[in-house]
Amino acid sequence: MSRNKRLIVACGSGVATSTTIAEKIKNKFEADGINYPVEAVDYKSIENELPSSSIYVYIAKPDSEVLKQAEQLGIDVYPGVPFLTGMGVDDVYEKIVKSTKK
Amino acid sequence: MNTKELFSPELICLNLEVKNKSDLFRKIADDLNKKGYVNAGYLKGISQREEEFPTGLITQHLNIALPHSDTQYIEKAFIYIVRLNEPITFNQMGDNQEIKVKDIFFLGIKDSAKQVNLLASLMDLFSNDEFVNNFVEVSNKTEMLSLVNKNL
After folding, report:
1. Which CATH architecture has domain A7-100?
2. End-to-end Cα distance, chain B
3. At B124, which CATH number?
4. Which range of residues forms the domain containing residue B47?
5. What is the pLDDT of residues A50-102, one digit of tens each?
6. In what order do the strands lie in the sheet with A76-79?
7. Confidence check on the interface: ipTM exceeds 0.90, yes or no
8. Do A85 and B59 touch (CB under 8 A)?
9. Cβ neighbours of B68 in A, within 8 Å
10. Could you report the per-residue pLDDT of B2-39, keeping only the tens digit for each?
């Protein structure tokens, strides 16, 4: 399957949260030698962003329609808040790394 | 803009008494409006955004909330530090679960490109044991200002 490899981080307004978390994930990927595109997007445009993504990290809680779309597209979905608070971040990051190797 | 410049003694309140979240937002919006940091649309802007995209966070030692509005309501960038006498209910970012919060940082972001480090630096503070220990002990504005300035 020629899936488009891209990790997106989506928050409510794109004011700060998604950019902050995207930067944190980028830095971790870089440190671990993982070459994978990471991008911050606005939750309002999520339905247009999902088809060209493979991993979706959410900050704004996704509604059920969005989750259904992600599932149909075979996109892995993970919470982004741990990257902000540091709580449970190792666990989530490990799962994301596994996803990048799919 | 340096994060430190966003703090000001006139934007620190460490013993605020409020009934609930809307009471808190009204009081802070009034004060910010009087002091020229936000325009008249701010209260509505911040309330709607919090409703749609909640900002409560469970950090390692402390529950906090980071209410912020879209940039169009901000006249002058700021961070307003508020501590409540009694905790009130916020919803957590990401999963919307209810959490009790006493410590709130209102983020007045005017230019998100320039202030992108703001959130990262704030969050680093709250994973720093020593900072959090001092933060919860601080009881006046001057000490609070010097504590954040020392750590940012």
Report:
1. 3-Layer(aba) Sandwich (3.40)
2. 13
3. 3.40.930.10
4. 3-151
5. 999 999 999 989 999 999 999 999 999 999 999 999 999 999 999 999 999 98
6. A38-42, A7-11, A55-58, A76-79
7. no
8. yes
9. 13, 15-16
10. 788 899 999 999 999 999 999 999 999 999 999 999 99
